[in-house]
């Protein structure tokens, strides 16, 4: 089923005789397998309002992300949260949609400085599990009336409602970018360097480390963005902070963009065998967590606050974290792994009860992606 209008979508859900598997562009096969009739949002497509001067765009949920980014690019603007493209990592095809990005709260390396997709949401329209059309938020940031369903829907994976339209804040695209590359640091030293850079006054917009880079050696990456003169100055000052290490500065805009797309899309783990886990943690815990994981491959983002880990199929990453904890999600796994292991981080009992209550309110019949986020 592929409704062309919000009203048609509402009618389909209101008349449901069984569960639905909600699908946008079909690029993110994450979560427990869902059994149900496929309900696609791709028919709800198009930019309904774009006001560059107000830094606001309103988009139907099934709109291809690439089309929206192209429209923003033409006005020298961008989505600040740098959404990841999951296709290479998951081996999927299809076209990423704006609704899918919002439903999964997809955010990339710039989150460490700019914030997540959730932080740039202004408003939503969606159809809940009863077929009711719901609107919340608006087109400005100062919107405090009622319940904040905008934040609630962002990252709900289609389990509370099917998004039909989203309003987003956008930001100007910077004139220039540079990347400081520090070679051959250990994980502990890399996390220390990234923390030092992020605490500096030089406005770092990306801080990542990979133990095995393209040349087979560790590399730590620090990104600077802004006006050309400012970028040159700040990159030089930041490089000077690490003058006791082997430091390079990349100023070529195309190479900088390519390098950070490599981090954003977790390219080191594309085309590999095994399960891929995404672990959020305190950056200071990252070195010890890395040792405990004993992973086949690792990539550190967000200054060490995000660890991507490649583990043998069927391995439960959470069992290796010990007392250090962390918030772990199985992003890529076989059907057997996804069926046997909790894909999303299990919630404490009080929070799980609250979550169940919210789902019962928005989807009392349990027809929207049932079981997708179950432990």
Topology:
Elements: H1 6-14, E1 20-23, E2 37-40, E3 47-51, E4 56-60, H2 65-74, E5 77-78, H3 87-90, H4 98-103, H5 111-114, E6 121-128, E7 133-137, H6 149-153, E8 161-169, E9 171-172, E10 176-183, H7 187-198, E11 204-210, E12 219-226, H8 228-241, E13 247-250, H9 253-264, E14 275-280, H10 286-293, E15 297-301, E16 306-311, H11 318-321, E17 327-332, H12 335-340, H13 349-362
Parallel strand pairs: 1-2
Antiparallel strand pairs: 3-4, 4-8, 5-9, 6-7, 6-8, 10-12, 10-13, 11-12, 14-16, 14-17, 15-16
InterPro entries: FAD-bd_PCMH, FAD-bd_PCMH-like_sf, FAD-bd_PCMH_sub2, FAD-linked_Oxase-like_C, Oxid_FAD_bind_N
Keywords: FAD, Flavoprotein
GO molecular function: catalytic activity; FAD binding
Keywords for this entry:
FAD binding; Uridine Diphospho-n-acetylenolpyruvylglucosamine Reductase, domain 3; 13 helices; 4-stranded antiparallel sheet; 3 domains; 29% helix; Alpha-Beta Plaits; FAD-binding protein; catalytic activity; 5-stranded antiparallel sheet; alpha+beta; 375 residues; FAD-bd_PCMH
Write a concise synopsis of the structure shown.
With 375 residues, this protein is of the alpha+beta class. It is 29% helix and 25% strand. A hairpin with a 4-residue loop joins strand 15 and strand 16 (306-311).
For the record, the CATH class of the largest domain is Alpha Beta
- The largest sheet has its strands arranged as 3-4-8-6-7
Largest sheet, described in full?
5 strands, antiparallel
Shape: globular
Overall pLDDT level: 94
Q: What portion of residues is helical?
A: 25-40%
Structural class: alpha+beta
User: What is the CATH topology assignment of the largest domain?
Assistant: Uridine Diphospho-n-acetylenolpyruvylglucosamine Reductase, domain 3
Report how far apart the termini are.
28 Å
What fraction of residues sit in β-strands?
25-35%
What is the total tally of β strands? 17
So, CATH architecture of the largest domain? 2-Layer Sandwich
Keywords: FAD, Flavoprotein
Domain FAD-binding PCMH-type: 1-173
InterPro entries: FAD-bd_PCMH (IPR016166), FAD-bd_PCMH-like_sf (IPR036318), FAD-bd_PCMH_sub2 (IPR016169), FAD-linked_Oxase-like_C (IPR016164), Oxid_FAD_bind_N (IPR006094)
Protein name: FAD-binding protein
């Amino acid at each position: 089923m592929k409704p062309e209008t919000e009203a048609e979508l509402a009618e389909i859900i209101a008349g449901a005789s069984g569960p639905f598997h909600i699908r946008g562009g079909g690029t993110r096969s994450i979560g427990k397998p869902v059994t149900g009739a496929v309900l696609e949002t791709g028919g709800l497509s198009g930019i309904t309002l774009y006001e560059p001067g107000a830094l606001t765009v309103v988009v139907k949920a099934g709109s291809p992300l690439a089309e929206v980014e192209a429209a923003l690019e033409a006005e020298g603007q961008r989505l600040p949260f740098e959404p990841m493209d999951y296709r290479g990592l998951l081996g999927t095809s299809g076209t990423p949609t704006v609704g899918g990005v919002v439903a999964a709260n997809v955010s990339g390396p710039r989150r460490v400085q700019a914030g997540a997709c959730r932080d740039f949401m202004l408003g939503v329209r969606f159809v809940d599990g009863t077929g009711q059309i719901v609107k919340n938020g608006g087109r400005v940031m100062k919107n405090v009336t009622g319940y904040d369903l905008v934040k609630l829907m962002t990252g709900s994976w289609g389990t509370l409602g099917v998004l039909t339209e989203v309003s987003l804040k956008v930001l100007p695209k910077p004139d220039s970018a540079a990347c400081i590359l520090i070679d051959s640091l250990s994980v502990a030293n890399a996390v220390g360097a990234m923390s030092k850079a992020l605490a500096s006054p030089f406005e770092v917009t990306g801080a990542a480390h990979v133990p095995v880079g393209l040349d087979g050696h560790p590399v730590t990456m620090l990104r600077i963005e802004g006006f050309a003169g400012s970028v040159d100055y700040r990159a030089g000052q930041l490089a000077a902070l690490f003058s006791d290490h082997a430091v390079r500065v990349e100023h070529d805009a195309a190479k900088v963009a390519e390098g950070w797309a490599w981090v954003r899309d977790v390219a080191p783990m594309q085309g590999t065998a095994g399960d891929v886990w995404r672990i959020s943690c305190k950056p200071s815990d990252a070195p010890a967590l890395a040792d405990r994981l004993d992973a086949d491959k690792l990539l550190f983002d967000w200054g060490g606050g995000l660890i991507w880990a490649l583990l043998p199929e069927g391995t439960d990453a959470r069992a290796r974290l010990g007392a250090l904890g962390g918030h772990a999600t199985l992003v890529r796994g076989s059907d057997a792994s996804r069926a046997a292991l909790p894909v999303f981080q299990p919630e404490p009992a009080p929070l799980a009860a609250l979550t169940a209550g919210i789902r019962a309110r928005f989807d009392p019949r349990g027809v929207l992606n049932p079981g997708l986020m179950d432990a």
